[in-house]
Model the fold of this input.
Amino acid sequence: MIVRILGEGQLQVDDSATDELNVLDAALEKAVNAGDERAFRPALAALLDRVRSLGSPLAEDAIEPSDLILPYSDADLEDVRELITGEGLIPG
Done:
């Protein structure tokens, strides 16, 4: 799957990582829904760090549709709330 981190670019992440990323996404969604700023920041960092560690960056000139769009690392709670759907940031 192609994952875009806003402000950073796109990464190719193996589909087999979906379950692991969904666990991190659930923690982030819980913090956002609770308005828990103390839990939000580390949950966002954990999700983004894991995507970065699992993913391989696409070439800067590559134009590929993104399967997932994740917030930038400095996003605030409200920014992320706007991106979350009924399935969180990562469907599945």
